[in-house]
Amino acid sequence: MAKKQTEKELAVEDKLKTIYNLQQKLSEIDKIKILRGELPLEVADLEDELIGLETRIKKYEAENKEANEAIAQFKIKIQESTMKSDKYKEQLDNVRNNREFDHLSKEIDFEKLEIELAEKRIREFTQASKNLEEQIVESKKNLVERTEDLAQKKEELDGIVSETKQQEEELREEVKKIETEVEPRLLQAFRRIRKSARNGLAVVCVERAACGGCFNKIPPQKQMDIKMGKKIIVCEYCGRIMIDPELVGAEVK
What we know:
With 253 residues, the protein is mainly α. The chain folds into 2 domains: 2-36 and 183-248, Helix Hairpins (Orthogonal Bundle), CATH 1.10.287.1490; 39-164, Orthogonal Bundle (Helix Hairpins). It is built from 6 helices and 4 strands; from the N terminus they run H-H-H-H-E-E-H-E-E-H. Strands 2-1-4-3 form a 4-stranded mixed sheet. A hairpin with a 2-residue loop joins strand 1 and strand 2 (210-211). Helix 2 (39-92) packs antiparallel against helix 3 (98-180).
C-alpha cells in the first residue's frame, strides 16, 4: 500500500515538473514574440493600407477618366448645338410668316440653353477632374511613403526572425515532445489557464507564501500541500497551477 502511495506521489510530482518545464519553454517562445514586438502587426497593417491606397488610386483614376469623357461629350454637344443654332439663324432670313419665325427663335433659344448647360457641366467636371488629379497625386505620394515604411518594417522583422528562428523552432519541437508526456486532461486545463492568463503563465511557483501569478497570500495548509507535491493545486484567485520552487529547482525571488 505504501509503495503504491509513493508511486502515486511521484507520479504527481512528475506531472508538476513536466508542466512546469512546458511552461518554461512556452515562456521562452513568448519572450521571442515580445522581442518582435508589434512589428508583425505593423507589417500587416501597412500591407492592408497599401492595398487600400492602390484601390483608392484606381477608383480616382476611373472617376477622372469618366469626368474627362463627360467633358469631351459635352464639348461635342456644344459643337452640335452651335451648328444647329447657326443653321436656324440662317433660316430666319428666309421665313415666310411669324409662325416660322417664332419656331426658329425658340429652337435658337433652346440650343443656346443647351450650350449654357453644357458649358456649366464642363466647368463642373473640369473642377472634379482637377480635384481627382490632386487626390491621385497625394495618394501616390502616400503609396510611395508607405511602401518605403513597409520595406523598412519588413527588414527589421526579417532581421529579428532570422536571429530567433532556429531558437524558436527548437523550442517548439521541445514543446511538442513535452506535450506528449502530459495527460490530455491536464494539458487541456493547462492550455485553458494559459489562454486566460494575462502574461501567459499557467504554472507559477510559490513566492513568499503567495501565488507567483496574482501574488495573493496562500493559506498555511495549502502551502503545506503544495510543498508536499501530492496533488495539483490551483490558486483560488487566479486559477493558476501553483508549484513549490524547491520541487523544480527554481530560484525564489
